[in-house]
Amino acid sequence: MKKVNNKINLVFVVGLFMIVLSACKKVPDGFLSALVRYEEVPINVPKGRAYVSSALNLDGSQKPVKVKLVHIRDKVTGEILDDVFLKEYPLLVWKGYYDPKLDTTLEMIDAKREQKMVAPVSINESSGQLEANYNTINVPSGSYILDLEISNESGNKIYEGIGEFNILDTPSFEVPAGRSTVAMKVGAESTTKTLPAGLISVKRISEEGNKVIVQIVDKNGVPFNPETGEIARRPQSGTAGGWLQTMQDYALDYQAVNNQMEFTYAVVPFPLASLGNGFNYYYRIPTQFVHFDEELEIPDDTYSCNARFSFRAHQPGTYEVLVTVLGVTHR
Predict the structure, then answer these.
(1) pLDDT tens digits, one per residue of 213-258
(2) Residue 121 forms beta bridges with which residues?
(3) Hey, what domains does the chain have and what are their CATH numbers?
(4) What pLDDT digit, counting tens, does each position of 66-108 carry?
(5) Per-residue b/e over 211-220, b at no fewer than 16 CB within 10 Å?
(6) Beta strand 43-46 pairing with 155-168
(7) Cα(311)–Cα(280) distance, integer angstroms
(8) What pTM does this model have?
(9) DSSP labels for 195-245?
C-alpha cells in the first residue's frame, strides 16, 4: 500500500512540475489572429452623410495594431476601384470645438473650420473603422469589398474581402420624429385635447442657399402669418418660464416674410446636435386665429393650437418644409 502511495505522490509531483514549467514558458509576442473580422455585415453607408462604422473585432490579436486599406473592389465584378474611392474632393473640416450656443455667427464658425481635400471613405488605422463623409455624394451607389493589411509587432497579414460595405442612396434630409398637434386651454395650459397629427412635406429646392423655409397651414392650405403674430413660440409647461425649442434656436438668422419663416444655417447636419429635445420644433397658433372642427367640440377663443414637427438637413441647400395642421381652419 505504501508503494502505491509513493507512486501516486511521484506522479503528482511530476505533474505539478510540468504545469509550473508550462506556466513559465514564454508566450510568443504579437499574436495576430487569422479571424479578425467586422461585426457589421454589410456596413451600410448613407450617401452624402457622415458615417462611422463599428471597429474591427481583433479576435484576441495583440494591440496596438495598424490597419491599412489595400483595395476597394466592386462586389459583383471584383474590379479594383481605388481611383474612384480614394479621389479627394474639397470638404470643410473642423479644427476646433463647435458650440452652437456660443458660435452664433458665420465668422465665428468659419474660424473653427478649414477646407481640405478629403477622400469619400477612409479606414481608421487604429480601429479599422470605416469612416465616410459628405464626399460619398461623388461615388456610385452599390456594394463593395474591402481588402485590408493589418500589422502588429508579430508582423502583418493581408485580409482579402474582410469587409463589405454598401453606398446607399439616401435622402438629403430626414424627419426624425412624428408630428403632433395639441389644443391647450387658454389660462389652464395643463388642460389639453389631442388633435389629428398633421402632415409634413419636405422638398430640397436648391443645392445652394443653406436655408430652411417653413410654412404652417390649416387643413385647407391657408397659411398662418408669423409676421402678424399668427405663429408664436410655445411656452414651457409649469411655472419655470421660457420656451420650448424652435428652429430659431439652431439657426444663424431668422426672418418672417411672405407668410413663412426663413432660417439660415451654416453647417450640416443642421442641426448638428440637439439642444436637449431631439430635433423637434414647437410652435403655437394663438386661439384668436383658429377655428376647430365641430366634431372636436372646442369653442372659439378657448384653446390655442400647438404644432410640433421635426426636420434635419444632412446636405447643404435650400429646403421647403410645409406643415399642415389638421382639424383646424384659419380665421
Answers:
(1) 999 999 999 999 999 999 999 998 766 678 999 999 999 999 999 8
(2) 132
(3) 37-168 (2.60.40.2710), 173-330 (no CATH)
(4) 999 999 999 999 999 999 999 999 999 999 988 877 888 889 9
(5) bbbbbbbbbe
(6) parallel
(7) 7
(8) 0.82
(9) ----EEEEEEEESSS-EEEEEEE-TTSPBP-GGGTSSEEPBPSTTS--B--
